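#onboarding

Welcome to the new folks! Below is a worked example of what a typical request in this channel looks like: someone posts a single protein sequence, and someone else replies with the predicted structure as tokens. Don't worry about understanding the tokens yet, we'll cover that in week two.

Example request:
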Amino acid sequence: MIKFLQLLAQLVNTKRQNINVQADSTDIDIEQALQRLALRKIFQQQQFSVLDGLNEYDEDFSSFSARGELITHDMMRTAKRLIQEQDQVTDINNEAVTQDLNRDDAKSV
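Example response:
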């Protein structure tokens, strides 16, 4: 906490000189911006980038390992939905082919 306050004080002193204060800005907005900047600077330090292994969601959950013969309800529902979508695409393609054949037959008569 002391390092944070020291860094915040340093940033306030150095950045105040560099900030272009507009007419409608308030001191509170500047202080909040400086505080966000100080927090960003602190948490970008190397000591905060070390993972301790206690993070529950830092793993890659985009792919799943096989679970043998186990099929969950969601997996079954998703498989049925994909099959239905594929059947719809097939039906649409078959209808288009049938229409093309009928059109060709009508032209040849």
